[in-house]
Amino acid sequence: MAEIYHATATAPVNIAVIKYWGKASTKLNTPTNSSLSVTLSQDDLRTITTASCSASFDSDALWLNGAPHDVSNARSQACFAELRALRKAKEDQDSSLPPLSSYKLHLISENNFPTAAGLASSAAGFAAFVRAIADLYELEETPTQLSRIARQGSGSACRSLFGGYVAWEKGSREDGYDSIAVQVAPESHWPTMRAAVLVISDAKKGVSSTSGMQATVATSTLFPNRANVIVPARMEAMKKAIAEKDFEGFAELTMADSNSFHAVCLDTIPPIFYMNDSSRAAVRVVEEINRCAGKKVAAYTFDAGPNAVIYYDEANEDLILGVLKKATDHVTGWSDKYSRISPKVPD
Ligand code: 2P0
């Protein structure tokens, strides 16, 4: 029986505070604008993936939460090809290495997301996919170098190779080589940041991110201003707010950018609705918390679905979670479950 080589890796979920929405190149999976996210704790939300390879395997294969998944798509194939090329270069330099680059790969992947979380999993999924194969191949590439590969699997995945506060710089090269993720600050820089995930629906989203963003780029008249003017300025302002641990600045930018993203979705033809009445109730509750506090102590953000992620500082936890808990009794459509998630991950 041929030897089986394997390695296991985990990757966390990230939630963007400056949103990625729009592709410059669908082939390279490069974005129209840079984005910035906070990585959540692996204790709460993560994908764990075991990659194995062997001369005895017949084909590349992936099992996700126990079910077989197709890997013939261009995105998975791009990740396999790039990682194999890096391994092959190592083997060419050192003939004592086993020829893993020529073996088929098997991937077994599990999410530990709370069943009703309804959170996007492609970011953690492709980050763990790339990390596990890189570990199996004993690649020495840095997380930023690997982010270039994960980006081709799913854009937001490039940010899940880091903990803390992470920017995906859109890059300017034709070949996408400089469209990569970098850590803006480690988690330890601002360790009191917290996030609550308010589950509104765990249903699969109606419009996929990929088709939604392509429709927005093609039809929204608001979109060019967002991508070319608004977001570049917000990226700089957000990096400054994080550097200075300025929660009010962070909150203002986070909420404004979520609203801007959902506005360009509404401006798409036909319009895309990710937020619903229960999402909007969450916005009103956060606005009310901030009004009563006399300053911004909570910041909502919504991705391509109705669930709210609410960032706050640990110092205000009792206030924020207390109000959210009370509100869940009155707002139709909110699950009584919400997760308090710490963005703490090892750096
Ligand atoms: C983000 N989203 O920055 C934004 C905000 C959704 C809303 O990244 O086509 O699944 O795989 O590159 O990464 C979702 O898009 O899209 C996303 P693909 P992805 O987190």
TrEMBL record:
Catalytic reaction(s) noted: (R)-5-diphosphomevalonate + ATP = isopentenyl diphosphate + ADP + phosphate + CO2
First-tier enzyme category under EC: lyase
GO BP annotations listed: isopentenyl diphosphate biosynthetic process, mevalonate pathway; sterol biosynthetic process
Classification via Pfam families: MDD_C (PF18376), MVD-like_N (PF22700)
SUPFAM superfamilies found in the cross-reference section: GHMP Kinase, C-terminal domain, Ribosomal protein S5 domain 2-like
Residue ranges of every copy of the Mvd1 C-terminal domain listed in the record: 196-347
InterPro entries: GHMP_kinase_C_sf, Mev_decarb, Mev_diP_decarb, MVD-like_N, Mvd1_C, Ribosomal_Su5_D2-typ_SF, Ribsml_uS5_D2-typ_fold_subgr
Domain of life: Eukaryota
Residue span(s) of domain Diphosphomevalonate decarboxylase-like N-terminal: 11-181
One GO cellular component term: cytosol
Gene Ontology molecular function, alphabetical: ATP binding; diphosphomevalonate decarboxylase activity
Keywords on record: ATP-binding, Lipid biosynthesis, Lipid metabolism, Lyase, Nucleotide-binding, Steroid biosynthesis, Steroid metabolism, Sterol biosynthesis, Sterol metabolism
EC numbers, comma separated: 4.1.1.33
PANTHER family the UniProt entry points to: DIPHOSPHOMEVALONATE DECARBOXYLASE (PTHR10977)
Family: Belongs to the diphosphomevalonate decarboxylase family.
Protein name per the record: Diphosphomevalonate decarboxylase
Name of the gene this protein is made from: MVD1
